[in-house]
Amino acid sequence: MTFRDTLLDQLRKRDKRERQWKEMINANQRLLHHAIELQKRNDQLILYESNNNSTHTQNAPANQQQINDLDRRIRELHEERAEMYKSQSENAQRLVHMNEQLRAKEETEKQQAEELSVETKVCKQLLTSIFRIKSFSEKINALSKECDLQAQQLREKNIVIQILQDELATLHLEIVTTEDRSKNLRKENDQLLQRWMNLKNEEAEKMNEATQFYEELRILARNNGQTLRQVNGKWVMEPSPSTTSSKNRTPAEDDLKRSSRILSNILLPSRVTKKFTMHEGEIYCVQASSTGSMFATGRVNQTLGGALQTITSVDFNSTDELVLGASTDNATRLWQLSTGRIKHTLTGHIGKVYSAKFNADSNRVVSGSHDRTLKVWDLQKGNCIRTIFTFSSCNDLCLGDADGLTLISGHMDNNIRVWDTRTGNGIKDMTGLHTSQITSVCMSPGGSTVLTNSRDHTLKIIDLRMYEVVQSFQADTFRNGINWSRACFSPDGHYVAAGSADGVLHIWNSRSGKLEKSIEGHGAAVCGLSWNPSGSLLYSADKSKVVCMWDTAHSDS
Amino acid sequence: MSAFDIAISETIWDGKLPLQVTFHPTESISSARTPDPIYIEVARLSYLSLLTHQLHSIYTGLGIQTQPENVWYDYNGEPLKWHFPIGLLYDLYNFPISQVPTFGEKASLPWRINIHFDEFPIDKILRNPTLDTTQDMFMSMLKEADFLRHGTTKRVMNMSKRDQTQLWQSLVQGKYSEYWSVNKHLLENGQLARHIPLRLYMPYKCPPIQELVPGNTEEHPLLIGDAMTRILPDLFPSDDQEECDAIPVIHGVPLPLDTPLGWASDNLCFADNFLHIVISKKGTDNGLDT
Questions:
Q1: Partner-chain residue, chosen from A4, A10, A19, that has the shortest CB–CB distance to B16
Q2: Where are the CATH 3.10.20.620 domain residues in chain B?
Q3: Whether pTM exceeds 0.80
Q4: What is the ipTM of this complex?
Q5: Is there a contact between B12 and A11 if contact means CB atoms under 8 Å apart?
Q6: Contacting residues for A432 by C-beta, under 8 A, at least 6 apart
Q7: Considering the domain B198-280, what is its CATH architecture?
Q8: What's A108's DSSP letter?
Q9: Do the chains contact at A29 and B39, CB–CB below 8 Å?
């Protein structure tokens, strides 16, 4: 036998041996389980029974009563239940009844609802139609309002048109009237021209009259040995040919003669020798010519062949051929006396020229102006050689010496200044001499002193070497009323003359300082004063266009 | 040679032992009130812990509270090792070597053992014989067998949880087909087994002998006799196999020495894939006819 078979056989034998107790053991197991079961149940029953027993033995009598009560309760409950059933059936019946009623009501309600819906439809239609009507009426209103508005606007426009038409009419009228006016104005214009022409004619006539007048004067003068001549509106007195008949005399001899004549005694007049009412405008200055034969006045508005405004200062040159006029139009003009034409116009000042002087050679002119400068002009070239800046506006100037190398100027700032024309520098500033502006400076015939006139109503003679006041003149009646009032020495240097604001001529003794004479003769303030170089005549001019001639050679009779 | 022998295998699986379990009196329950001995048939491949599990319901039904940790068995005063299969335990005490003095008679059937519920002898047997511990023990034996067989424990470790539980439960409930449906995966030889998982038991306190026994090679199949000679040369002299005194016993039957090792390992192994062989003396009165 193989090992396998041996094994199998052995195993079978083993099993036979070991399994013989199988059934017994199984039976045993079953019995055991059963016993366990029974035990369990027994225990349970005992437990249950013990519980039951315990309750039962204690509550036996009470139990009976409880049972009775319970029976009673049961009966009552039965009765209640019967009643409940009854009421339930009644309720059911009522419920049925109610349901029927409800159904009927619902039907009626439905019908009503239908009717209502129909009605509402109708109402809605009505409402819509009403709305439409309303809207239409509103539209109509609006349109009518618009219509009114338009009508109103139209009316307004009509009004406006009317107004415009009226305006147009008025404007037409205005045009017509203005045309008429313009015509009238033209007529007036013509008339005015006519009048002006007439005036001019009158003027001419007046002039004629004047000439006539002066014819008479000439006759008189001829008696005195002088002639009167008109040169372009300037009144000039000339020595009559009878006295200067001899033309062959040399000018030097004439000069001598003239100078000798200067030394004639000056007699102070007490009344006016002659009086002329001269010009159309105011007289600013008067100047006797160098030769003594003429005097010139500068006046307002005088178109002296070219000057456009007032002439503030007049000077003759030494030969009397040229006349120098300083004007407020910032120019200085030279006229040739023979032709009466302007020889030079010296422009350059930027302020009014208040004074202009020739130098001895007549080739230079010095002018002082309110633009605070002094200008030296060369007559051959016709231009300004030098400009001296003075610090104040110059009211008057005079030459310090015959060549014009030094200048003396009087200013608005109350000072007198001495200048060197070659260098243009100031030599001396004399301050504090006057307390108001200087109105004139005048050289003495001797050349060493200067006469100053001032608005502080005093005149002073100042020595040029020492720069000291030698003499001062004043009077109670003397008032310097004009800014350019001129004073002058007498040719012999004895007297000093000045015009007062009230028209009274004052003459002082230059050495003593005493007021020698105060002569009335002018009606207005005296502005210009000039002594004839011969000393025979004193010319004075006042603001009221009157020139007075005072005879200082002969005493009044 | 390594094919499954269904007949042998089934027979081995179905092997059962009758037991008489006597209640040993405890402190709380005196000898007067002890329940009667319980007779039960238990599978040879099963373990004592599983027996405890079966008896538990009976004893609670009888009103005795049991705690599996404190339950232990003894035979003739000797505490029984619960981690040995019951078949092995019975063979150990039924087939002793006569030289060694035995206690009383040979084990007769039904095998009478005592059940104790207290005074657990910690020094003699392993602690805590609960179901879980038994399962762990079983699994470790399985792994050891797998390692000896294949060199790795890969097969056991890769077993799914379901398979593990099925394996154990089928052992607990004694379901042959379910057990073998899983176990055959473990025994499949992709290559021939390297070593045969084998344990030899000498009765009476000899520790089990486990030595490396090489598996079959193609040319030279090893026999049981060769293995015995290799391991116990004194008891199994190689020259004369007929003459030796000792007999290897397995599952209560003597094992022929010419059985091939591989075949024996596949078909005759216990539940944990080990061959637990008891060495017995020839000629003793043990009901074996050789």
A1: A19
A2: 6-126
A3: no
A4: 0.79
A5: yes
A6: A414
A7: Roll (3.10)
A8: H
A9: yes
